[in-house]
Amino acid sequence: MHIPDGYLSPSTCATLYVLSASGWYGSLKRIKRVFASRTIPLISVFAAFSFVVMMLNVPLPGGTTGHAVGVGVAAIVLGPWGAILAISITLAIQALFFGDGGITTLGANCFNMAIVGSFVAYGVYRWIAGKSELISRRRIVAAALAGYVSINAAALVAAIEFGIQPLLFHDANGTPLYAPYSLHVAIPAMMIGHLTIAGIAEAVISAGMVSYLQTADLGVLRGIKSVGPGSVQIVSGAPGESSKAEPSQRRLWWTVALLMLCTPVGILAAGSAWGEWSSADLKNPHKRAQIGVVSGNQAPPSSVPAGLQKLATLWTAPFPGYAPRFVRSQAFGYLLSAMFGVGFFVVTSLITSVVGSKWKRPERQL
Amino acid sequence: MEASGTTVVSRASFIESTLRGLARGMSKALVSEHAATRPGLLQQLDPRVRVIGVLLLTVAVVVCRRFEGIVSLMMVATSIAVASRVSLASLAKRVWLVTLGFTGLIALPALFLTPGEPVFALQGLHISISAQGARTVALLVLRAETAATFTTVLVLCTPWNHILKALRSLHLPPEVVTMLAMTHRYVFLMIETANQMFESRQSRTIGTLSGSERRKMTTRTAGVLLSKSIELSHEVYLAMLSRGYRGEIHLLTDFRLRPRDYMALTAFLMTAGLAMWVGR
Q1: Of A16, A25, A220, A224, which residue is least crowded by CB atoms under 10 Å?
Q2: How many domains does chain A have?
Q3: Residue B53: its pLDDT value, please?
């Protein structure tokens, strides 16, 4: 699943770098709040551990072997934010030092395995484990499913990234310029291997390690938190609990997500908003008749005003009519536009806050 | 002594293949450290120029949409490797064959699956190779090979700590640079620890291991490594505290650009720009 250089277009790589960068920024802030000055040694050593786990051959039923990513265990022990950092650092070392995965695709690899994988693993584990005892078998099942589902979710996202390449990036003859397979080939091709071998390897390592920790090192399953410089203790409560957002902020995010899901409702609205007519609308006889009706039977000008005609060509929107050209489903187009809009504002806010904080407190260097 | 199960697999094949895998990781890294000390073109340049230059050229490879651009970049990558005294044989073994095998395998079905004008048909099987299919496979393989050559040459010619310092001077947060450096340091310790655990297990195992026993052994080894990692992180943290660490990171960047670095940077910029223009 380590995507090499050359498989994804520059714009896909850039988009996924931006998404991953927002994940790295958020997780670094949250993790520093939880682990304080212990963050660096903890994440570094855990990343080294993840690296070695990725090198181990996991024997699977049927006599074959597979490699795990270790994202399930990382999310269970460190929580999703810690896992994002640890797995991303591991992937960066693999790409930079061992040539496993590309440099331009590092953002994509981190997004798929570290961000999507960690959140899915943590969500599945918490959902299935519930409030069960730390030594219950349910936790082992939860860990197995967390590993299995997370690696498959990451593979699915990678398959979608591959699958949209020929749709978006091809030359005049129709030759795909990057990954050549469309979604209906890329998704089954990626998922067969992950649903059968890689997913099981991840499930085996996650379940086996939780089972081991239940008997040998139960404290690790409770979560690792720092209570001040120099003193580290294992405390009760699930990992990641202290890193939760404030309730009002969480409600805001849920509301934003709900509103994004509701955006396709806009399809139900017929016609265009009054006064938002394009020059093409003013040339179309049918649209002209509609404009006349909604304007109190006042006919629009006989030709497109010169100023409107001139200014209309100044800027072409990337998602005209909330429907990107490459998306066929109008509802999906609305949803994609909403995600892009919200993502754009979140990233802009993050950049503004980073620039603002740097401007206030210049970094000291030796 | 280990009991044998119904699905019996040789203990030697499993433990030894794991040991071989771990040793391969170690030796790969040692080769890098050795090549970085040889006198050569890249080795003589400031690490920041090396990192920026190779990143620029890698981006140019991804941006290029035409063969001419990518082929010329592949020639540039090979020339840089030769001038930096990187053995072409090791490059072929470590990069070209591996990438060809991996990407070639992935891209091969595209020859038949990509719609377009047929250029070769397999009579009787009702399958044909399209011109578009052949072109997309060639583009993908060539692009992956060229990008991998650039990044491998950079890694082979630059010590890891220099790459990290260069990344720091490119404004990567100091916490991230420190984590990369520490992870790299402890990866070797962890590999060594895992190696020793498997070796000690091998020395105490006679007979054969069943599938479930092998799984148990792998997951327990990983579990012990996890416990050791957490212990180790605690010890490292205390060691850092004892040396005056208070949560702030200060890194020294003592690189100085010389005239030849500016010339090299200009050359990298012009090459990348030219390749992108040719391959647009």
Answers
A1: A25
A2: 1
A3: 92
**Mean of pLDDT values over B64-79:** 90
The CA distance from A129 to A310, in Å, is: 62
Nearest residue in chain A measured CA to CA from B163: A96
Decide if B135 contacts B112 (C-beta within 8 A).
no
- Tell me which chain B residue has its CA closest to the CA of residue A190: B106
CATH number at A243 reads 1.10.1760.20
Question: What are B254-269's pLDDT values in tens digits?
Answer: 677 888 889 888 998 9
Count, residues in chain B: 280
Q: Quick one: how far is CA A58 from the chain centroid?
A: 27
Residues 217-276 of B with CB under 8 A from A: 218-227, 229-230, 232-234, 236-238, 240-241, 245-253
DSSP assignment string, B183-225: HHHHHHHHHHHHHHHHHHHHHT--S-EEHHHHHHHHHHHHHHH
Residue A103 contacts B where some CB pair is shorter than 8 Å: yes
Whole-complex ipTM: 0.79
Residue A59 lies in a domain: yes
**Whole-angstrom distance, CA of residue A15 vs CA of residue A50:** 26
**Residues of chain A positioned with their CB less than 8 A from the CB of B146:** 6
Q: Give the pLDDT score at A148.
A: 93
Chain B residues with CB inside 8 Å of A213's CB? 223, 226-227
State pLDDT tens for residues A221-257.
776 653 333 334 444 344 444 444 445 556 666 766 7
Amino acid identity of B275?
A
Question: Which of A24, A49, A365 to mutate against chain B (most B CBs within 10 Å)?
Answer: A49
Write the CB contacts of A301 (distance below 8 Å, at least 6 apart in sequence): A282
Rounded to the nearest angstrom, the minimum Cα separation between B135 and chain A is 7
Least trusted range by pLDDT, from A251-260, A346-355, B63-72: A346-355
Q: Are B166 and B47 in contact (CB under 8 A)?
A: yes
A60: which chain B residues are within 8 Å (Cβ-Cβ)? 211, 215
Task: Retrieve residue A274's tokens.
Answer: 């009054």
Distance CA B268, CA B280 (A): 18
Handedness of CA A241, A243, A249, A253 (dihedral sign): negative
Residue spans of the domains in chain B: they are 13-278
Interface of B with A in 7-66 (CB under 8 A): 7, 9, 14, 17-18, 21-22, 25, 28-29, 32, 55, 58-59, 61-63, 65
CA-based nearest distance B194→chain A, Å: 8
Q: How far apart are CA B213 and CA A217, in angstroms?
A: 21
Residue A3 lies in a domain: no
Judged by CB atoms closer than 8 Å, whether chains meet at B178 and A40 is answered as yes
Q: Which A-chain residues 342-361 have CB contacts (< 8 A) with chain B?
A: none
Q: How many CB atoms are located within 10 Å of the residue B103 CB?
A: 21
Is the per-residue pLDDT at A338 higher than 80?
no
In this prediction the pTM is 0.70
* Residues in chain B within 8 Å Cβ distance of A104: 58-59, 62, 147
